[in-house]
From TrEMBL:
Record-annotated membrane-spanning stretches: none
Domain of life where this protein originates: Bacteria
Protein name, UniProt field: DUF1667 domain-containing protein
Provenance organism: Vagococcus zengguangii
Pfam families, per database record: DUF1667 (PF07892)
PANTHER family the record matches: DUF1667 DOMAIN-CONTAINING PROTEIN, MOLYBDOPTERIN OXIDOREDUCTASE, 4FE-4S CLUSTER-BINDING SUBUNIT
Amino acid sequence: MADIICIVCPKGCHLQVDEENGYKVTGNNCKKGVVYGQQELINPVRTITSTCKITHAMLPRVPVKTTEAIPKGKMMDVMHQINHIELEAPVHIGDVIIENVSDTGINVVACRDMEAVQ
């Protein structure tokens, strides 16, 4: 039996997930808790949000995120790739910064427009 706290909504339900009985979830207040509890033990995933260096822009970094949740085991590799990117302004919301990051089929995209400055 695993005890975890659900992070899907602000309620923060204390879930108990029984791995020996088909990942049965108790302690949830909604159906999202069941899905989260089972996924967290079978294949945990996370959406990564971070920033990348950018040159010739009004700010030194631009916010980025993965377009979907990635397997938790690949988070360090994805962050390593994000930390080694240096962009050149202009960058626009939705621009693909890293395509198919860590062979996940998921892209890293810009979350803010960043115009070039002289």
